[in-house]
Design goal:
202 residues; mainly alpha; Helix Hairpins; minor pseudopilin epsh fold; 2 domains; three-stranded antiparallel sheet; 3 strands; 50% helix; globular; binds manganese (III) ion
């Protein structure tokens, strides 16, 4: 049994002009595919073959001798989660129920966006910025390289990839601009709500 590259949840042209089809072609078709291929090669004929992606991530996260397996497995998971964090109909305002939660945690939706953008912009080198749930509290966290929130016992709600390969073709060195576009035009608020378990209708 081996892992397959998941299909993008939308046509690769559908995030234009915010993310080009060329970027998705390379990012999904080359980078994400390479993590899948590397992972399959690394676990072949080992005790990890047949384990779920989450099991592999959690079992290798604290083991330096398995860093290669961890890095590729976590990057497979992170990228699949990132594609679902965006939508062609993304951005705009969160639902009133989600907005209430963001206001309670961050002061306002605008403050959430500013803090998320700041965290992503200040991740030194490659990594990710996330909205997570930790012990019931909403938090913004950044992780380096392949690190992923489940390792810290956090539940990921949404992420933006801040590796240069995510934005360089479209934005060159302007990572903050990419993060602003992600928040204004791409973030799929309904995916955030789904990961929070949804809200009761009032
Ligand atoms: Mn990437």
């Amino acid at each position: 049994m081996s892992f397959d590259l998941p299909l993008l949840p939308y046509p690769k042209e559908s995030l234009e002009p915010h993310i080009s089809a060329r970027t998705l072609d390379v990012h999904h078709g080359k980078h994400h595919q390479a993590y899948v291929t590397n992972l399959n090669n690394l676990i072949k004929d080992t005790p990890l073959e047949g384990a779920s992606l989450e099991e592999i991530i959690l079992q290798t996260a604290k083991d330096d001798s398995k860093a290669g397996v961890f890095n590729n497995a976590a990057q497979v998971w992170n990228h699949t989660f990132f594609w679902s964090s965006m939508s062609a109909k993304g951005g705009g305002e969160p639902s009133p129920a989600l907005a209430d939660k963001l206001v309670a945690a961050f002061g306002s939706v605008a403050a959430f966006k500013e803090q998320f953008k700041q965290a992503g912009a200040t991740q030194f080198g490659s990594g990710w910025v996330w909205l997570v749930l930790e012990a019931g509290a909403l938090k913004i966290v950044k992780t380096g390289n392949a690190m992923t929130p489940m390792v810290q016992g956090q539940k990921a709600l949404v992420t933006c990839d801040v590796w240069e390969h995510a934005y360089y073709l479209d934005y060159q060195n302007r990572r903050p601009d990419f993060l602003q576009v992600f928040l204004d035009h791409l973030i799929d608020w309904s995916f955030v709500e789904k990961n929070m378990g949804g809200f009761e209708r009032k």
